[in-house]
Amino acid sequence: MVLFLIVILPAILYAIVALLAVLIHEAAHVYVATLLGIRVKRIGISWRGPFIVREQGTPVACACTALAGPISNLVLSILFWSVAPTFAQFNLVLGVFNLIPMGGTDGSHALLAFRRTQVMTAVQIGAARK
Predict the structure, then answer these.
(1) Which residues of 26-41 are buried (b: 16+ CB within 10 A; e: fewer)?
(2) Other CB atoms closer than 10 Å to residue 3's CB: what's the count?
(3) Burial call 61-76: b when 16+ CB within 10 Å, e when fewer
(4) What is the pLDDT of residues 46-93, one digit of tens each?
(5) Cross-strand bridge partners of residue 49
(6) Helices 59-80 & 85-99 angle (0-180, nearest 10)
(7) What are phi and psi of 101, to 5 degrees?
(8) d(Cα 87, Cα 113) in Å, to the nearest integer?
(9) Which residue, 33, 19, 25, is CA-closest to 95?
């Protein structure tokens, strides 16, 4: 009984906290994509974690969709810091990690979308000068 209370129960609760944070993160992506008129084709899970397959939107819509998950985690972290510190800390780590622009993270997707916006702006400026 002591083993259950000291080891197993906290591990189960932490897994529930992690699952809830990840579900909210992905739901934020889907919500913002839908709100911006981007059709979500499929939601799934792979060895790298959950993923969303969606249509390509404008660069700004893609950046907003990519940033929705980490921002939702950071907001939850602030809201739950004093009430549910484990949930808040997990959301903080998940949100900050996903903002790092490295392969496959939301930060890399947002950075790519911002670069597409800059390229499109440069092309428009170049076309206007001719």
Answers:
(1) bebbbebbeeeebeee
(2) 8
(3) bbbbbbbbbbbbbbeb
(4) 887 788 888 888 999 999 999 999 999 999 999 999 999 999 999 999
(5) 46
(6) 160
(7) -80, 75
(8) 30
(9) 25
